[in-house]
UniProtKB/TrEMBL annotation:
It comes from Nicotiana sylvestris (Wood tobacco). It holds the Pfam family GCV_H. It comes from the Eukaryota. GO terms for cellular component: nucleus. This is Protein Abitram.
């Protein structure tokens, strides 16, 4: 049998060896997975930015709902005298008649508003400057105005102890604002309570959910 020389042996072995693929150190193997990761991130972001249709309210929130927290004082001083307190983050409290106030049950609703109660005409109060000069300080049971219907009259009170900054004197000439938008243009007054006084009065008020549950037969 003829002998093979060393060169021939090496060439045969080389032909029988299966090639091994070694990944290149300069190749980025993560490139293929990046689009997948981006798709996942985009989907998560979309879920955060685009809510489900079934989670959306039937109507967009009003300016009051967006900027204020609403509390209620049902039967304040007398049965049926339901009032609201819209509280802003800066502490200001807007006072008005809740939709369940007894005045709205009378035929024709509110027909007039009179701020001449107590010892002074509340509509004559003029507060000026950052320190709210000339602001009068009232108790929660102090009368703000009197609203009248064709059959009766009702005293509207502060509900909150604090400084009276403004009354809505538009109601003198436009009392119908109470009937159409008591929680917005038909508000009664704006009061600034001290933080300590607010903490005390807040404990006596109802939140929106509690109020709706209490007056569910009237709403």
């Amino acid at each position: 049998m003829p002998e093979q020389n060393a060169d021939e042996t090496n060439s045969v072995e080389t032909l029988n060896v299966k090639p091994t693929i070694v990944p290149c150190s300069h190749c980025d193997t993560t490139e293929k997975s990046e689009p997948v990761n981006e798709e996942i991130e985009d989907e998560e972001l979309r879920k955060l930015l685009v809510p489900k249709i079934e989670d959306l309210p039937l109507s967009p929130p009003s300016a009051v709902e967006s900027n204020f927290v609403t509390y209620f004082a049902p039967d304040f001083m007398k049965p049926g005298h339901d009032q609201y307190v819209h509280r802003h983050a800066n502490g200001l409290c807007i006072i008005g008649l809740a939709t369940t106030h007894v005045a709205f049950k009378d035929e024709g609703g509110v027909s007039s508003v009179d701020f001449n109660v107590g010892k002074s005409d509340r509509s004559g109060i003029k507060v000026t400057g950052k320190r709210k000069k000339n602001a009068q300080h009232f108790e929660s049971n102090t009368a703000l105005c009197k609203v009248c219907t064709n059959d009766a009259s009702y005293i509207v009170r502060c509900c909150v102890k604090g400084s009276l900054l403004e009354v809505n004197d538009r109601l003198i000439k436009q009392p119908e604002l109470l009937n159409s938008s008591a929680d917005r243009e038909g508000y009664i007054a704006i009061i600034m309570p001290k933080p300590a006084d607010w903490v005390k009065v807040k404990a006596t008020l109802l939140g929106a959910e509690e109020y709706r549950e209490l007056r569910k037969d009237m709403l």
